[in-house]
Amino acid sequence: MNALLKERTRDGPRCSVDVQILMRTCLEEFLQMLTTQASEVSAKAGKKTICKDHIDAALEQLDGAELCGRRIRLDYTE
Prior knowledge:
elongated, mainly alpha, 0% strand
């Protein structure tokens, strides 16, 4: 998380330790919410493994796309 903050603010202001802790706490909470929701989606689909579609559905249900201001899609090759 700290490396990400440094990368994103490379040309701008530095982040204080308090901000780093706050950002890390927010990220941990968001990931907990996302994985819980994705787990529920996966269980409803009768699957034991969370896949990309479950994450996409969880983001939709949590208004994750709205939080980021754009549609979030995971782009990778399985």
